[in-house]
């Protein structure tokens, strides 16, 4: 299974992205800025050194192995709308480091499309 994410620079200056991390949670779990899931313990960390200019976006693909039980459990949770996702991005702009934490509820698949609903925490430093 492949999930595709789009990271967009909505700011006024170029951003040098150097780390992106996806952490999945069960629908009933509490999500904080930096905790981990007891149900989906794996974090998917991608280290990149890419500059994203204002208004541009960077596409990120994450592959999941459905041949093992953890990958299959995550896939079923996503398809059935029982998963939340925290997406943390570390980047630098004009010599200052920033952290963005965006958390979303993955809604149940409808006609082949999945949508996400923003939930807490949402953090921009």
Overview of the structural elements:
The protein is mostly beta strands. The chain has a single domain, classed as Sandwich (Immunoglobulin-like), CATH 2.60.40. 9% of the residues lie in helices and 51% in strands. It is built from one helix and eight strands, in the order βββββαβββ. The protein has one helix at 69-79; strands spanning 2-8, 15-26, 43-46, 50-52, 57-63, 83-93, 96-106, 116-124. Strands 2, 3, 4, 6, 7 and 8 form a six-stranded antiparallel sheet that branches. The relative contact order is 0.26. The mean pLDDT is 87.
Keywords:
125 residues, mainly beta, Immunoglobulin-like, 6-stranded antiparallel β-sheet, two-stranded antiparallel sheet, 8 strands, globular
Quick structural gist:
With about 120 residues, the chain is mainly beta. The protein contains 1 helix and 8 strands; from the N terminus they run βββββαβββ. The strands form 2 sheets. Strands 2, 3, 4, 6, 7 and 8 form a 6-stranded antiparallel beta sheet that branches. A two-stranded antiparallel ribbon has the order 1-5.
Secondary structure elements and pairings:
Layout: E1 2-8, E2 15-26, E3 43-46, E4 50-52, E5 57-63, H1 69-79, E6 83-93, E7 96-106, E8 116-124
């Amino acid at each position: 299974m492949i999930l595709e994410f789009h990271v967009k620079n909505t700011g006024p200056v170029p951003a040098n992205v150097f780390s992106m991390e996806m952490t999945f949670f069960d629908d009933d779990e509490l999500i904080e800025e930096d905790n981990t899931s007891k149900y989906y313990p794996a974090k998917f960390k991608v280290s990149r050194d890419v500059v994203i200019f204002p208004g541009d976006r960077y596409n990120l693909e994450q592959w999941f192995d459905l041949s093992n039980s953890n990958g299959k459990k995550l896939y079923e949770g996503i398809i059935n709308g029982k998963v939340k996702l925290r997406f943390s991005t570390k980047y630098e702009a004009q010599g200052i480091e920033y952290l963005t934490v965006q958390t979303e509820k993955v809604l149940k698949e409808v006609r082949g499309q999945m949508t996400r609903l923003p939930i807490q925490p949402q953090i921009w430093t």
